[in-house]
Amino acid sequence: MGASSTHAAADLPRAAHLPDIDRYDTFPKLLRYNAEHLGDRPAMREKDLGIWQSWSWSEVKTEIYRYAAGMAALGLQRGDRVAIIGDNRPRLYWTMCMAQALGAVPVPVYQDSVAAEILFPLEHSEVRFAVVEDQEQVDKLLSIKDKLPKLETIVYDDERGVRDYTHPFLHSYEAVLEEGDAKLAAEPGFVDAEIDKGQGSDVSIIPYTSGTTGNPKGVMLSFSNVMKAAYAGAQFEGLTASDDCLAYLPMAWIGDHIFSYGQAYICGFCVACPENSDTVLTDLRELGPTYFFAPPRIFENLLTTVMIRMEDASAIKRRIFHYFIDHAQKVGVDILNGRPTPFLDRLKYRLGELLIYGPLKNVLGLTRVRVGYTAGEAIGPDIFDFYRSIGINLKQLYGSTEAAVFVTIQPDGEVYPDTVGTPAPGVEIKIAEDGEVLFRGPGVFLEYFKSPEATEKAKTPDGFVLTGDAGFIDENGHLRIIDRAKDVGKLTHGGLFAPKYIENKLKFFPNIKEAVAFGHERDYCAAFINIDLEAVGNWAERNNLSYASYQDLSSRREVYDIVKAHVEQVNRDLSKEEMVAGSQIKRFLLLPKMLDADDGELTRTSKVRRGFIADKYKPLIDALYDPAAREASISSEITFEDGRKGVLEATCLIYDAETYEGAAGAAAPKAAAE
Question: pTM score, two decimals?
Answer without folding.
Answer: 0.80
